[in-house]
Design brief:
The protein has 5 domains: 20-144, Agglutinin, subunit A (Orthogonal Prism); 148-288, Agglutinin, subunit A (Orthogonal Prism), CATH 2.90.10; 309-426, Hepatocyte Growth Factor; 435-576, Phosphorylase Kinase, domain 1 (2-Layer Sandwich); 589-787, Orthogonal Bundle (Transferase(Phosphotransferase), domain 1). 23% of the residues lie in helices and 25% in strands. A 6-stranded mixed beta sheet has the order 37-41-42-40-39-38, sandwiched between helices. Strands 3, 4, 5, 6 and 7 form a 5-stranded antiparallel beta sheet that branches. α10 (595-615) packs antiparallel against α16 (762-770) and α11 packs antiparallel against α15. The protein is globular and about 90 Å long. This is Receptor-like serine/threonine-protein kinase. Residues 26-146 form the Bulb-type lectin domain. It catalyses: L-threonyl-[protein] + ATP = O-phospho-L-threonyl-[protein] + ADP + H(+); L-seryl-[protein] + ATP = O-phospho-L-seryl-[protein] + ADP + H(+).
């Protein structure tokens, strides 16, 4: 065994010659362009491709290497993850033997050439996933295996003698820029996982996982059977990294990737399966076991970004959460950390307790953000001490010990073994103030000044009366621009002000069963005024409560509420005017939008609903998610409207039965069964909308000559199980050729399960859409209702 390992180790050090392989030789002077119909070179088996990979932005590309024969084109290597190129870029195997990437302006932005300084004679994409530069005798002079990015493949070696002796995670599944985690073989032979101080290459110590081996010439080997081990050429020692049973390379694709969350995972995918249901890579092994608690360095943010905390999910993947009073820095990437949603603290002690309060989280800690530590105290003392200290953001109480912490908070994690609680300092919601109350207070302030003014200017009374009259006339014409105190950022309008702003509610933009929307204009520009129908006076308190909840909501995928009117029986809402109208207009009344545009809209809706369900201060169930309630701004960004209104609308104002809130075709089955209504009703409606976005067809379509309507959701599931989805999508080549097409269909099927317990949460839906979570094979969505007939 020793001799076999020694021979293998010696072979691994030699240049790799491939005289017996069938090669698709790429000659000097060959080029690929993003303008080509097929801008890539494939391996002889067709299992791997090297070339331009289109990103979700549509007109940006990576020079990349990916798996070709599986539904999801998984990237295994990139040349320019930090600098995607635009349409018109090209890659060339130059006549001097280098591989060069040129951007659309013709500038060379990346180059690969033989490591020994010689000139390559040709290139080839090999069946093992290595794109290589070859000499005249077919010796490999350079290959993508020499400079891995975040992935290694079977037969690949991570060697400290090579320049590319490390794997670096990407920022996210969508952003392939260098992330904050790295795997490398250190000079002492230890295989380690460490976090990185970006944008530099400096590493944070200690490592959060290590093989604890030591030999100055160790290298990491990933063999054809899927085993990973460290081997030492000098003495032949062999240290297994993976522990699972070997698999046949004839039957499975394999890869090992340091993912964007910092976990190093080994994946497999069956080669022989022809089932459309196989849509995910299976995780066979990973380290560390719990990334949330593994990172313990003195600097750096930890597994998640600053001011957030890490929660290990049931799938053993980390989720990053914001504490109360904080929101994500980037809603599209929750690993980027959280920021405070309230103004900075004042250090005037008599003001602190008035301006802030403490919120409790159990078994949450940021272990390395302490600046004070107290013994023999209780929770109330710890809480009040933090409340009185303007530097304190969080206090931790565990037993009789108290820690005070300041921002930025780092290494946050949720762990039952903490056996304590965190007290988060947040600003309380501002007090509610009715419009009439506000104006009454204004009048009370004006009165004393008016008396003094009248006394001092008695002789000029006539002039004063003229000025006052002129002032009142101008005030009637103007819409107030000062915000009311309902939620700090909402204006309260009188009915007459909105009547004048809409020119007597003249131009109607659209109508529904419970409202009519009119076009208007105020001092800030164009507005949309939604006039709610038949809202009785007795819901006055509930109406203002809902306005407070809506006013606190702030997300780029929500329609922005500017203000409202609650005068008498009049209930009106004032929104920004979205110049591109509703999603229904885009999908059903115009030429079909591009596949890329539809994907971005779907992602935006999912992000908005995730925010409403899980992230905003008051959890909101929309109850009427449909294309007509998805608005599109000037850049076609999806904005969800009418959220937070479900409690205000009477059941007899809907388009369905008197017991249902929602619109026919989008309504979850539990509405009809008298079951509890949860956020899963929005998940169901989103699933229907997602299908409509994918196929640009209405869910319920009445056809001439047919008594029964055509139901899209039923046709989609039938097409999925029969492998005939391509027929439903028609001539949409963009969708057919996109690796995400079938994944999105599977997510939609999960959303429309009749059994609400089977539907994922909107956060899980978003993760599956973005590729951050696996999408299991969905069951028949109608089996539950059929079993209950």
């Amino acid at each position: 065994m020793f001799l076999q390992l020694l021979c293998l180790s010696i072979l691994l050090l030699l240049p790799f010659s491939i005289p017996f392989q069938t090669l698709n030789i790429i000659n000097l002077g060959s080029t690929l362009s993003t303008l080509d119909d097929n801008p890539y070179w494939t391996s002889p088996s067709g299992e791997f491709s090297f070339g331009f990979y289109a990103l979700s932005e549509g007109d940006h590309y990576l020079l990349a290497l990916w798996f070709t024969k599986i539904p999801i084109k998984t990237i295994a290597w990139t040349a320019n993850g930090d600098l995607p190129v635009q349409k018109g870029s090209r890659v060339e195997l130059t006549t001097i033997g280098s591989l060069s990437l040129f951007n659309s302006a013709g500038a060379e932005i990346w180059k690969a050439e033989p490591l020994d300084g010689t000139r390559a004679a040709s290139a080839a994409m090999l069946d093992n996933g290595n794109f290589v530069l070859l000499s005249t005798d077919s010796t490999i002079k350079w290959g993508t295996f020499d400079q891995p990015t975040d992935t290694i493949l079977p037969t690949q070696i991570v060697n400290i003698l090579n320049r590319g002796s490390k794997l670096s995670s990407s920022i996210s599944n969508e952003d392939h820029s260098s992330g904050k985690f790295q795997l490398s073989v250190k000079l002492d032979g230890n295989l380690v996982l460490r976090s990185i101080a970006r944008p530099t290459e400096e590493t944070y110590d200690p490592p959060y996982w290590a093989s604890n081996t030591a030999d100055t010439q160790s290298r990491l080997v990933f063999n054809e059977s899927g085993l990973m081990y460290l081997i030492t050429p000098l003495n032949g020692t062999h240290f297994n990294i993976t522990t699972e049973i070997q698999v046949s390379p004839r039957d499975f694709y394999q890869r090992a990737t340091i993912d964007s969350d910092g976990v190093f995972r080994k994946y497999t995918y069956p080669k022989s399966s022809t089932s459309p249901n196989d849509q995910t890579w299976s995780v066979k092994w990973y380290v560390p076991g719990d990334i949330c608690t593994a990172l313990t360095g003195n600097v750096g943010s930890g597994a998640c970004g600053f001011n957030s905390y890490c929660v290990l999910g049931q799938d053993q993947r980390p989720n990053c959460e914001c504490p109360p009073g904080y929101d994500y820095v980037d809603g599209n990437n929750t690993f980027m950390g959280c920021k405070q949603t309230f103004a900075p603290q004042s250090c005037e002690k008599d003001q602190l307790r008035k301006a802030f309060q403490m919120r409790e989280l159990i078994n949450i800690d940021w272990p390395l953000s302490d600046y004070e530590h107290f013994l023999s105290v209780d929770a109330e003392w710890c809480s009040n001490t933090c409340l009185d200290d303007c530097f304190c953001a969080v206090s931790i109480i565990r037993g009789s010990e108290c820690w005070l912490k300041k921002i930025p908070l780092s290494n946050g994690r949720s762990d039952p073994s903490i056996n304590g609680k965190a007290l988060i300092k947040v600003a309380p919601p501002p007090p509610q103030l009715h419009c009439n109350e506000k104006k009454e207070k204004q009048h009370k302030m004006i009165l004393p000044g008016s008396i003094v003014l009248a006394a001092s200017l008695f002789l000029n009374l006539l002039l004063v009366l003229i000025l006052v009259t002129k002032h009142k006339r101008s005030r009637r014409k103007a819409i107030p621009v000062a915000p009311s105190a309902v939620e700090g950022n909402l204006q309260c309008f009188t009915y007459k002000e909105l009547e004048e702003a809409t020119n007597g509610f003249e131009e109607e933009l659209g109508k529904g069963a419970c409202s009519v929307v009119y076009k208007g204009r105020n001092a800030q520009g164009l507005i949309a005024v939604k006039r709610l129908k038949n809202i009785p006076v007795e819901v006055d308190k509930e109406f203002k409560n809902e306005m407070r909840a809506i006013g606190r909501s702030n997300h780029k995928n929500l329609a922005k509420l500017l203000g409202f009117c609650d005068e008498g029986t009049h209930r009106l809402l004032v929104y920004e005017l979205m110049i591109h109208g509703s999603l229904a207009n885009l999908l059903f009344e115009m030429p079909r939008p591009s596949w890329y545009q539809r994907i971005q809209i779907a992602f935006g809706i999912a992000r908005g609903l995730t925010y409403l369900h899980e992230e905003c201060c008051t959890k909101i169930i929309h109850c009427d998610v449909k294309p007509q309630n998805i608005l599109l701004d000037e850049s076609f960004t999806a904005r969800i409207s009418d959220f937070g209104l479900a409690k205000l609308l009477k059941t007899d104002q809907t388009r369905t039965s008197t017991a249902v809130r929602g619109t026919r075709g989008y309504v979850a089955p539990e509405w009809f069964k008298g079951k509890a209504i949860t956020s899963k009703v929005d998940v169901y409606s989103f699933g229907i909308v997602l299908m409509e976005i994918i196929f640009c067809k209405r869910n319920v379509e009445l056809e001439v000559g047919r008594e029964d309507p055509e139901i899209l959701s039923e046709n989609v599931y039938d097409g999925y199980v029969q492998g005939k989805l391509q027929l439903l999508i028609g001539d949409d080549e963009e969708a057919k050729n996109d690796r995400r097409f079938e994944r999105m269909v599977m997510v939609a099927i999960w959303c429309v399960q009749d059994d609400s317990s089977l539907r994922p949460s909107m956060r899980k839906v978003l993760q599956m859409l973005e590729g951050a979570a696996d999408v299991p094979t969905p069951p028949d969505p109608f089996s539950y209702v059929n079993s209950n007939l």
